[in-house]
Amino acid sequence: MTSAKDDRLVGRSVARREDPRLLSGRGRFVDDIELPGMLHAQFVRSTVAHGTITEIDLTRVRQVPGVVAAFTAADLELGDITAQLGRPLSEFVPTAMPVLARDRVRYVGEPVAVVVARDPYLAEDGLEAAKVTYAPLPPITCEEQALAPDAPRVHAEAAGNTLVDVGLFATEGIDEIFDQAPCVVHVDVRTGRQNALPLETRGAVAQWDAREEQLVLHACTQTPHQVRTVASRCLRLDERAVRVIVPDMGGGFGLKCVVGREEIAAAAAALRLGRPVKWIEDRKDALSASFLAREQHYTARAAFDADGRILGLDADVVCDMGAYSCYPFTAGIEPLMASAEMPGVYKVPAYRVRGRAITTNKAPTAPYRGVSRPQYVMAMERLMERAARELRLDPVEIRRRNVITDFPYTGVNNITYDPGSYLESLDLCERALREAGWYDRQAAATAEGRHIGIGYSCFSERTGYGSAAFAQRKMEVVPGFDLAEVRMDTSGAVTATTGTISHGQSHETTMAQIVADTLHLDIAKVKLHQGDTDRITYGWGTFASRSIAVGGSAVRLAAAKLGDKLRAIAAAEWGIPPEDTELDRGRVRRRDDPDVALSYERLADTAYLTSHLLPKDIDPGLTATAVFDVHNDGTFSNATHGVVVELHEGTGQVEILAYFCVEDCGVAVNPQVVEGQCRGGIAQGISGALFEQITYDAQGEPSATSFMDYKVPTAQEIPEVVIHHLETPCAFTATGAKGAGEGGTIGAPAAVLNAVNDALRPTGVELDNTPITPETVHRALTPRTPEQTP
Amino acid sequence: MNDTTGLGDDVQLITLDVNGTSYEVITAPRRTLVDVLRHDLRLTGTHVGCEHGICGACTVLVDGLPVRACLMFAAQAEGARITTVESLADPGTGELSDLQRAFTAHHGLQCGFCTPGFLMLAQGFLAERPEATKEDIREVVAANLCRCTGYQTIVEAIDACATARRSQRAMGAEEESCN
């Protein structure tokens, strides 16, 4: 790398290269794909939460004008989707998720049959003619029912409706620590069931390509290679006979990183019918019958010394995963993530945790931006706040006394944290709020009888999960590494591939910045390919904020190798060692005589068109591949969020007056993109704290099936966010970057909850659960006469 | 059955004026405007996010006013001027409009799925209310949903575009008064 510091693109807010097409309507999303003779699929879905199927009668469906076919599980004979952990049955119970329900349904919305018609409207007509008869079973709709003795089982093989039950840590002597501690505080934190809610719903277009003897599956997925694996197994095709292509994607947020049933069923229908089949999920199905997220319950206690330092942490985590274990992550993803990482940014000397995943008759869950960290951070931050109250310490001061300051730090959870700015971000965030006058305003408002509160959250998020970190969970399918190829053609233009896939994160720009810098090449000469299993050798897709940290590192290494080859070709021509050459603005030049240089076009010509001129030890062509993995415990981005809220007495409304975020994701390849990720994440986190929830009634009927029932915040509810960047470069990635995708979502709920509690301080009420509804706040603010008090 | 349209027997011929071009479409009466735009006219820039009029991803202009194309039957749009996101960039050069450029400059989009809806909402609104303040813009933008940006940069982009247009108009007026 020879470019002068000020030429570098990494670190600059380079304008997004994907924007012109997305702004002018030239993006291509799954539903934009139209193929000759294409048919349209819709799914007959269960209307009961739990029951056995006694009859499926599709006779009338097949008579509906325009309906071409209707298939049940028996018609398609597909394999099941089964996610596995390599743990004993006492810790993990695998459950098969059939592509279409066979004899039993386990949630409202479960796909039972697929109807294929000439037009989506006609497919919907077909659904109305389906007759499915169920023998209902008692539904399990909450944790208490699931864990009750003698509860009916959602899956016969899962005793106690428990899919995962793992005690990852139990420090010896922890009970004595709690017995002797001067201060022990408890919390009981529950978070509501949410929908990750990408604006583009899921969808797929499947076609058999007879010439290639290949199923081409255009799918809206964050993990194309994993969808390929499942499709090939369910459809009993060689993996090479399946090509998954991901066009533009309208968000994912984790929901699209697990393999869904509908895309597999659509593919099976396309194979049966010999015609392309499109399935586009409608919003009702997306809200109620797609993958949901977040419903967790933490019963936790923490022991502190008299100075407010944590002595021990003891937690019981129950995650309601719904009806099925998601592929490939399994129902273990949430409880194992929480158990492994709960101490977070704090020095916790003793730790005991039990993590459970339970199954209920609700739509299954998928990872959602943050995965367990919004919840365990909330539990930790509530413990901090409660201890601060008990010990009469300032909420910021108690954090200051507990955050990790010496790096690398190996925690009681056996995780080694790479260097971060935990204390610095906390200090800077508090200072920013003070300097903006919020503490003064709070004091003045309190004197007027208004309810203004200030709240913080401090956290780190593991982002560069390599395969070593994922393997600790004992997944049988272990994500982690990524693979990149960088190739140059005879015009000196470069194509880079990545196994990650952008669904809004700007990879076409940020990856190109990395390549352009590494090769010292004009960014206009760089193009990125992503999301096509025939073009990309392998990849783990985009989730867990891994794209730039892991995928970007692979791209960086591949580009560097290509640069080495360019230098070797030039050096051979000059008869000098490659070390005596360097890359410089689209050329290789001699170090001893910088005016002597060969352009990349000229070197590419040699590599391809006159390769007989190359020395024997240099292969023709200009391609380089690299694999990157993080071999230790991962990289840790960190941040502190500070938020100011006002509670309105008459309505119980929580208004956010100000929001500050100090974040550190190592080297920010494109600061504007990083800020975009922060702001978007914070909006989703605020929404989880205040608005979004899908509840189920006693029959297992979901409460929210449209945007009339599910509150997604608008520009009126989401405040402006002030962002400060700190930069602790990461030693474990080739780019110095850590991940930046999930932090906002992780930090916001705890900060908002703490701010609300700060505003409620005079009432003595403390809230631990989200979403914080106006009813809850109104009740807390309304003084009750003794007769009214229950 | 001899239906070759794939739409059933109950079809009608309608004429739609979209981005200044007149199209004849054979369609079923129940087909929504957004489906006809996207699938019959292949103008796929306009997106479908909810099909019940809340998310606004399908916003187009009908006679200059923002309308949710998922809540309108195509047949109801006969005789009206329909404008979609495909009309914003210069048709000859492909050069983005000032509004589109402002979205890029302020990072007002990430996945880009909701973006055409926001652009058309802003396009219609600023034409009606060129003097709109940032707060007015925030209120209007609340009509549509975005899941990526947190809205701040969308509001900033539209506000910057409105401000630039006002200052351009002021300069134009000044030049005129000098002449």
Write the layout of secondary structure elements.
The complex is a heterodimer of chains A (790) and B (179).
Chain A: H1 19-23, E1 39-45, E2 51-57, H2 59-63, E3 67-72, H3 73-76, E4 81-82, E5 96-97, E6 104-105, E7 111-117, H4 120-128, E8 131-136, H5 143-147, E9 162-170, H6 174-180, E10 183-191, E11 203-209, E12 214-219, H7 224-235, E13 242-245, H8 261-273, E14 277-280, H9 283-288, E15 296-304, E16 310-320, H10 333-341, E17 351-358, H11 373-391, H12 395-402, E18 409-410, E19 416-417, H13 422-435, H14 438-447, E20 451-462, H15 467-471, E21 482-488, E22 494-498, H16 507-519, E23 526-530, H17 547-574, E24 581-584, E25 587-590, E26 597-599, H18 600-608, E27 623-628, E28 636-647, E29 654-664, H19 671-690, E30 721-726, H20 743-759, H21 774-781
Parallel strand pairs in A: 1-14, 12-13, 16-17, 22-23, 29-30
Antiparallel strand pairs in A: 1-7, 2-6, 2-8, 3-7, 4-5, 9-17, 10-15, 11-12, 11-14, 15-16, 18-19, 20-28, 21-22, 21-27, 24-25, 25-26, 28-29
Helix pairs in contact in A: 11-12, 11-20, 16-17, 19-20
Chain B: E1 12-18, E2 21-27, H1 33-40, E3 59-62, E4 65-68, E5 81-83, H2 98-105, H3 115-128, H4 134-141, H5 152-178
Parallel strand pairs in B: 1-5
Antiparallel strand pairs in B: 1-2, 3-4, 3-5
